[in-house]
Design goal:
The protein folds into two domains: 3-213, Rossmann fold (3-Layer(aba) Sandwich), CATH 3.40.50; 219-295, Alpha-Beta Plaits, CATH 3.30.70. Helix content is 33%, strand content 30%. It has eleven helices and 14 strands. The protein has a six-stranded mixed sheet with strand order 5-6-7-3-8-9, sandwiched between helices. Helix 6 links the parallel strand 6 and strand 7 (182-186). The chain is elongated. The two termini are 41 Å apart. It binds adenosine-5'-triphosphate.
Length: 297
């Protein structure tokens, strides 16, 4: 399986801020990756380095096997959709499509036109006259119709209503299944994308905290709640991801599955076991008072 992005110890510093702090991960060809994390976690900075808009302060970053910065061959395979996209004055929706045709070698004009219809975007409307949500829809149309081998969506749906967001997920999945490519999607709407993404990269304060197949996380992460001492007795060992303490009580986030004897032991110790959603997992790992189990003692 080919690797599209390889990061080894990649860092981006702004004076005293490490926006991205020595991260190492890889992104394989043909997968939908969710880049999750709180505000200021480093998601946009990471995407800007991958797309050659920023140079790393340290480490080694390759995209399609080469460094992306000022590398036309690499950049021609990338489409980066971000909320802050600017267009020239007087640009209409049709001009944005014209640019897509020129910029992206695999551009599909028919798909773009179908998506414009789905999202109810008029070809002749000036981009500056589009509503906030309509501008987001336009970004989504470009991102999907580009069919770029590596497509990055950085929180692509500011102002988009629930119907339009669902349309985005549906169209992305449908087109991806016919034309597999690598998609990196940053979002705060974790519940909404939890069935869509195949792999989770969770970044917090510039560091990768979770780099896991979504299937491994879906339904297999459990929350164990009860007296701290009982959780200690359960000796979860390597299963335990995080623990929060609330006086004598604690809540441990646990990577399952637990076998039947572990489950019945948890019950006999008076512990409560519930399945953890991806969103709950992300919240519990990245809450500012959450501590990794190694330091939670
Ligand atoms: N040009 C810059 N100069 C100084 N600090 C910066 C700059 N760009 C980003 N940062 C800092 O780097 C950190 C990461 O920012 P980044 O925009 O990558 O976060 P993010 O995960 O995309 O956040 P959000 O979800 O809010 O968009 C933040 O602390 C931010 O203040």
């Amino acid at each position: 399986m080919n690797t599209v992005i390889t990061a080894r110890g990649v860092t981006k510093r702004y004076h005293d801020v490490s926006a991205v702090d020595s991260v190492s991960f890889s992104v394989r060809e043909n997968g939908i990756y969710g880049l999750l994390g709180r505000n200021g976690a480093g998601k946009t900075t990471l995407m800007q380095m991958v797309t050659g808009q920023l140079v790393a302060s340290g480490g080694e970053l390759t995209v399609f096997g080469e460094r992306p910065y000022e590398n036309a061959a690499v950049l021609s395979n990338i489409c980066f959709i971000k909320e802050s996209q600017r267009y020239p004055d007087g640009f209409k929706v049709r001009h944005v499509l014209d640019s897509g045709r020129i910029l992206f070698p695999r551009w599909d004009d028919q798909l773009a036109r179908n998506l414009l219809r789905d999202f109810q975007l008029p070809l002749g409307r000036g981009v500056k006259k589009l509503s906030r949500g309509m501008r987001s829809s336009l970004g989504i149309v470009i991102g999907l119709a580009s069919r770029a081998p590596l497509t990055l969506f950085d929180e692509p749906y500011l102002g988009l209503d629930a119907v339009a967001r669902q349309l985005f997920y549906d169209r992305l999945l449908a087109d991806y299944s016919e034309h597999p490519r690598t998609v990196l999607l940053s979002t705060h709407l974790i519940d909404e994308v939890s069935d869509l993404i195949e792999h989770v990269l969770l970044i917090d304060r510039g560091r990768i905290l979770l780099d896991e197949e979504a299937d491994t996380l879906r339904g297999q992460v459990l929350t164990v709640t009860g007296p701290s001492s009982a959780i200690d007795e359960l000796t979860l060992g390597a299963h335990e991801l995080y623990r929060e303490r609330m006086g004598a009580l604690a809540r441990a986030t646990v990577r399952g599955p637990l076998d039947s004897s572990e489950r019945s032991r948890a019950e006999s110790l008076g512990l409560d076991l519930t399945t953890t959603s991806l969103q709950q997992l992300v919240v519990s790992i990245t809450r500012s008072d959450a501590q990794p189990k190694e330091t939670a003692q």
